[in-house]
Amino acid sequence: MSAQEAARFWRSPGLPGVDLLKARYVTHRFTRHVHEEYAIGVILSGVEEFDYRGARHRAGAGAVVLVDPEQVHTGHAGVPDGWAYRMLYPSVRVITEIARELLAGRGTPHFPQTVVSGAAGAHAAALLRAAHGAAEHGDDLASSTLARTAFGALVRHHAAYRPARPPRSAGDRAVRLAREILHERLVDPPTLEDLALAVEVRPFTLIRAFKAATGLPPHAYLNTLRVRRARSLLDSGAPAAQVAAEVGFTDQAHLNRHFKRVVGVPPAAYQRAGTYKTPPANRT
């Protein structure tokens, strides 16, 4: 990480089901990836630029960023000095329960608007910053109250429920089977040709259908699965070198590179977050 950059990932007992990241990035670039959780945050300074849902977005100071679970996105500096932000990653369960309580709706809410700025986002941005700061200083009551209030405001004013999915096609079946194979074969994945043969479609047909369904080609999807499994193993206390082998990366350096491109911090920093300690304040 550049000397100008700093990132801290942690969890707070006051915010169960919510991961926290406080960072300043200049040269760091997030690869195309997805999260199981929502990614909700506020830009403190600079500009973050990211690709999401087929468009390039720019979020400047004071803007709130809203990314849905399992949606492919990137992230990099939009200005030479980079950007600083505070991110919260609430689980689907956390946001769904809030939506159920406030809106009496069913299903998983999503956020059609990706960047909320100006007066429309000012209140939520202030709440998110306050909740994040309270969690950083170990104030469980304040962080839980402020975070729930912030999430509630975002759900009330910016969330919607997804329409019913259209009927599945033959391509959907091939992608579903291919994903099952990749889940089962993290360590020894098949070639594209063998994967296509197993699901009974042509290789280029599989690539197109897979990207249409997941936003990623099969090899990138596999690396996302590996990082997701690595997080689970690191949470259980497994050493990084062992984790790298168990999820199919060639060595620990390979794990470190892909992990940081998705999570924003290397595996060692992520694992330290497993046992909560109030991190020292900094000026990021």
Automatic annotation (TrEMBL):
<dbReference type="InterPro" id="IPR037923">
    <property type="entry name" value="HTH-like"/>
</dbReference>
<dbReference type="InterPro" id="IPR003313">
    <property type="entry name" value="AraC-bd"/>
</dbReference>
<dbReference type="InterPro" id="IPR050204">
    <property type="entry name" value="AraC_XylS_family_regulators"/>
</dbReference>
<dbReference type="GO" id="GO:0043565">
    <property type="term" value="F:sequence-specific DNA binding"/>
</dbReference>
<keyword id="KW-0805">Transcription regulation</keyword>
<dbReference type="GO" id="GO:0003700">
    <property type="term" value="F:DNA-binding transcription factor activity"/>
</dbReference>
<dbReference type="Pfam" id="PF12833">
    <property type="entry name" value="HTH_18"/>
</dbReference>
<keyword id="KW-0804">Transcription</keyword>
<keyword id="KW-0238">DNA-binding</keyword>
<dbReference type="Pfam" id="PF02311">
    <property type="entry name" value="AraC_binding"/>
</dbReference>
<feature type="domain" description="HTH araC/xylS-type">
    <location>
        <begin position="176"/>
        <end position="273"/>
    </location>
</feature>
<dbReference type="InterPro" id="IPR009057">
    <property type="entry name" value="Homeodomain-like_sf"/>
</dbReference>
<protein>
    <submittedName>
        <fullName>AraC-like DNA-binding protein</fullName>
    </submittedName>
</protein>
<dbReference type="InterPro" id="IPR018060">
    <property type="entry name" value="HTH_AraC"/>
</dbReference>
